[in-house]
Amino acid sequence: MSKAVFITGTGTDMGKTYLSGLIVKKLAQAGKNPAYYKAAMSGNDRRTDGSLIPGDALFVKEMSGISQSLDDMCPYVYENAWSPHLASRVEGNPVDLDVVRRGFLKAANDYEYITMEGSGGILCP
Fold first, then answer.
1. Which CATH number goes with the domain that contains 63?
2. Catalytic residue among 16, 38, 61, 106, which?
3. Is residue 26 annotated as a catalytic residue, yes or no?
């Protein structure tokens, strides 16, 4: 199993994604095999085909240069810029903890290091 670090903060826009990107970038530069994982992210834009762009995952991927697919970085992506638990309820796509666990375990099996970012602030369910 890989080594993992969990990044959280007291609120949204605290710099969790930026810090996660720096950690993943430095691990990649050191020749490690790092991954990024976030259970759910909200406030995302749509592609021209209507699918949602996982913005935080895209930021980390571009910053770090890793080859991990965006789909493997985050299983739940929401459009509304609300806490993920509220966005999931409104958008009709509730978070299933088993899906989150399976995604994390896949990353743990495929990569040497995982930087996992918390969703929203520390008080988000």
1. 3.40.50.300
2. 38
3. no
